[in-house]
Amino acid sequence: MSAAAVLPPVCLALLVLCLGQAACLSGRECRWREAMLAGAVVWGVLVVAFTEGLSLFGLLTWLWLVALWSLAAAVAVGVLVVTRASFSVGGGADLSPGPFPEGKGSQRSDRQPLLGREAVATWGLTPRPPLHHVERGSRAAMGERPGRLPGRMVVLAICGVVAVVVIAGVTAIVAPPNTYDSMTYHLPRVMHWIQNQSVGHYPTHIPRQLHFPPGAEFILTHLQLLAGSDRLLNLVQWLGMVGSVVGVSLLAQRLGAAGPGQVVASVVAATLPMGMLQASSTQNDYVVTFWLVCLAYFVLVAIRRPGWGGSAGVGAALGLAVLTKATAYLFAAPLLVWLLIGYGRAMRWRCSQHVLLIAGVVLALNLGHWLRNTNLYGTPLVWQDGASTSSYTNEVIGAGMLLSNVIRNASLHASAPGGSEQVRAQIGQQLAQWIDRAHALIGIDASDPRTTWQQATTSEGQQFRVEPFHMHEDIAGNPLHLLLILYALVAICASGVLRRGPVLVYAGVLVAGFLLFCLVLKWQPWHSRLHLPLFVIWAPAVSIALSPGWSRRIGYGAATALLVAALVVIGYNETRPLYGPRSIFSTERADQYFATRPFGVDYRAAIGYLNSQTHGNIGLVLGTNAWEHPFWTLLKDEAGDNPRLEHVLVGNVSGRLATQHQRPAAIICVSCTAAKVERVGSGFRELRRFGIVSVIEQGG
Asked: Are 490 and 281 in contact (CB under 8 A)?
């Protein structure tokens, strides 16, 4: 693995240091969490700029990336030196970041309530009560007494969060990527871009490799190209988890939580079952979650202190979010409405300039991908591909449909996590029966194809079902966190203090995001992973809802229960387990790519045969859900390099992008019928079958 792979993360760290040091040396508080979010957003913009800029000229290569990241690192170091030289530190600015640095009082977490001074700051929406009244009221409500128990609880909670994050990080480093979608399109698109030295569209049997937003894969491309392997790729999602856990604590502080409340918010975010599973994968749900956390933070900043910096931050975070996953449009929309209302009240007509800035930044970040989609598909956003007989969006709109989708999406997180598999299955069946009865009252079929995603090749996805709880990154639910969110929603609406603060509007924005999600997208049994951003961004509101005195112990108890449960189950990842006969520490890396798939033997046999030959150019004929990445990572020539792999005989619209290349020496056909193999092999003379994998060669 090349040492050049450290350049992007080093640049990220330097950007955070630049922003944090500037705040410290300028006499302000050392706001390292703010610096982390802002530095990450700047770094994300650089990733997009480098990727799109080099692709325009077909220069997306190792050498050019090393040059650009080295230049960026040099500039960041120069800024650090110049900034330190420009300020006098004689005033004794505290450069120690601390766990939650928010000023002098932040170190006395043992005497802080969960709800702090800013609990009822209203961001310009309603009159703001005196802060001394809020402070006395919140402390009195909580029955605050001197003592060390809260401080000890905070320290233990931080240690628990660190343990969860470290375990997820170790899993991410040791295990190879093996998520279904990653094997199908996330990572293959990365390999095609590297091979083509451009992120331009190419002919493929798997259209999702082209039209899905590529933001997370841009980052993966840099790490894959610089490292020369996929050993670091899982860390992208892990970094998304780390950033989100830190970011929600900052959001909690912005909404009024004191130190302990901010820690509770981090605990809630870090212990999500779906989040712990995603953090060691090469999906993109935690990446988009982090960008949405950044967006929520910049929105709160911009509402309270309107300015060009906040607007630029909103535009960059929003642009990176929608470049990563299309669900960001739905979750971000209510936040933007809140921002527009705040801007309108604060700046009147002048807010149009800030809106134009936000739109311009979003356009600049997404223009390349939108143009590529428009040139091929005629639209920048594509809601259907060859894997589906219908679009991802609902075909009918109405109150009954919305209620149906709300119930069905919520049910994905209602499965019981305890008990035997048989008990969990029985609970799931009982829950499905209740949901069917509810739909009978609504007058809608729970499996209505107009609101239920359909798959082209099988009946899977055509019928509504409630899956038993599994620690699997495609279907895992968050039942305990769902209960906490429901409790928080009731508590916020019932509390007079909280109703006067920004947390009520914040919770309303999140509810609106969920309703918009249900209104637009057809139900899928895998939607629980798409809900990850909402669960993470709910964490600050949950922590604040646990702030009154009568529920403070509930808050500490809930945090403890979540951490204990997380530390127990995090090792039982069904695709990357830490324990048992399939442990990532005892299973060969090549076998781990197929940890949950029975066709691994077929792939390994076909790849072993091809590695014994000397084929420099291999064609691919795949189904829309076929695993492609193992061919890229396991096929090697005599020099240890990958042969050139290209999709051939492509029948969808991307087939028109095919260019005249050297005729492939062999064609790999996965899950092809005998008739299709014969048609594909026209003009070839030899055929070898390895289970579902057919290898067709030119012959002697």
From this structure: no
